[in-house]
From TrEMBL:
Protein family membership: Belongs to the glutamate 5-kinase family.
Residues that, per the record, bind substrate: S52, D135, N147
Keywords annotated in UniProt: Amino-acid biosynthesis, ATP-binding, Cytoplasm, Kinase, Nucleotide-binding, Proline biosynthesis, Transferase
Gene Ontology MF, one: glutamate 5-kinase activity
Name under which the protein is recorded: Glutamate 5-kinase
Domain Aspartate/glutamate/uridylate kinase: from-to ranges: 7-234
Main location: cytoplasm
PANTHER family: GLUTAMATE 5-KINASE (PTHR43654), ISOPENTENYL PHOSPHATE KINASE (PTHR43654:SF1)
Organism of provenance: Alteromonas genovensis
Length: 369
């Protein structure tokens, strides 16, 4: 038996493992996970822990409050976060560090690079990063929404070799195993397509967490495109972690791309949010991914949304075909002004002085979606 050849691994632990009864944190299921982390580190594998559970951990402190109230949920997260971190810290004899993130942090390129540098610095100093979404300040605009997708973004930022997503079942089944006795588990997935998504439902009704199998597949799709081996395993059983350490697959293994996306392209496609749209003529045949300066205002027939210089935009054709997500070198106001000029000469002269509309340093191809 030999342990897997990982340099760095991200493990995602959900609320149901942290606070299964919503009566504060419990170490019942966390002991085997903590031991797995300890053994990984002993084998020379760096670990980043993405841990949900702050709201579930803090809910028992607000017994008489309306728990669907957003302000109360944020308070529950604030109170539960300290208990959750303290619970994890008690299980280790090495230091850990708390990192609370929002999607706004991840989708801003400068802050994203800062997150990467912080993770690398913590790992270099043998400190375990414990990451969670900052539920106390998130809004609909700022939140990732589930820690499955957050874990994939963190795995990409950390340049991880493997992402392990803990679930309440053994892996991905071709149908719901709670409802169908003949459901079969997929041991390996080479390509994530609509047939794979069709096997997943939404969030579990009455569950503690915010995700379901679909969000886990979404996370796997993000991770494998960055070249990261991804596993969905049963986090409630110690056997899962023993098998991983023995180099065996205890759940569903999503195989990574043979040619992973470059870091900039992956961030643009899977992490950055488009703030607006640029719609171009349907007969445009430029290759935006390799020669973005082919896109000029003469091809633009519409601009949707408001965005500033440096924001991410979606470039699509009028029939809805998505071409690229890219960093805009122009604001929506300026693009609208230039595109509405009757003379193309003005636009060409302006673009010659100021450069291309989208940055060829920050662009992700979407034509194969």
């Amino acid at each position: 038996m030999s342990h897997p050849n990982w340099n760095r691994v991200v493990i995602k632990v959900g609320s149901a493992l942290i606070a299964p009864n919503q009566q504060g944190c419990s170490s019942h299921y966390l002991l085997s996970i903590a031991q797995f982390i300890v053994r990984c580190r002993a084998n020379g594998t760096q670990v980043v822990l993405v841990s949900s559970g702050s709201v579930a951990a803090g809910s028992h402190m607000f017994a008489d409050q309306e728990k669907s109230n957003i302000a109360v949920k944020k308070a529950m997260a604030a109170a539960g976060q300290t208990e959750m971190i303290a619970t994890w810290d008690r299980l280790f004899d090495f230091p850990s560090a708390q990192m609370l993130l929002t999607h706004a942090d991840l989708r801003d390129r400068e802050r994203y690079v800062s997150i990467r540098e912080t993770i690398f610095s913590l790992l270099y100093n043998n400190i375990l990063p414990i990451v969670n979404e900052n539920d106390t300040v998130t809004t609909d605009k700022l939140k990732v929404g589930d820690n499955d997708n957050l874990s994939a973004m963190v795995a990409a930022a950390a340049d991880a070799d493997a992402l392990i997503i803990c679930s309440d079942i053994d892996g991905l089944y071709n149908k719901n195993p709670h409802e169908h006795d003949d459901a079969k588990m997929l041991k390996s997935v080479d390509t994530i397509d609509e047939s794979i998504y069709a096997m997943a439902g939404g969030a579990v009704k009455g569950g503690v967490g915010t995700g379901g199998m679909r969000t886990k597949i979404e996370a796997a799709e993000k991770a494998v495109s960055h070249g990261i081996d991804t596993y969905i395993i049963n986090g409630f059983t110690e056997l899962s972690f023993n098998m991983l350490l023995a180099g065996e697959n205890p759940g569903t293994h999503f195989r990574p791309f043979k040619k992973p996306m470059k870091e900039n392209e992956h961030w643009m496609r899977h992490t950055s949010n488009a703030q607006g749209e640029v719609i171009i003529e349907g007969n445009f045949d430029g290759t935006l991914i390799t020669d973005s300066d082919q896109l000029t205002s003469s091809e633009i027939i519409g601009v949707n949304g408001e965005f500033s210089v440096g924001d991410t935009i979606l470039v699509r054709k009028e029939d809805g075909t998505k071409l690229v997500k890219a960093k805009s070198n122009y604001s929506s106001c300026l693009l609208n002004f230039i595109a509405n000029q009757e003379s193309d000469e003005f636009a060409h002269e302006f673009e010659e002085k100021t450069g291309p509309i989208i940055s060829d340093q920050h662009v992700a191809n979407l034509e194969k979606e």
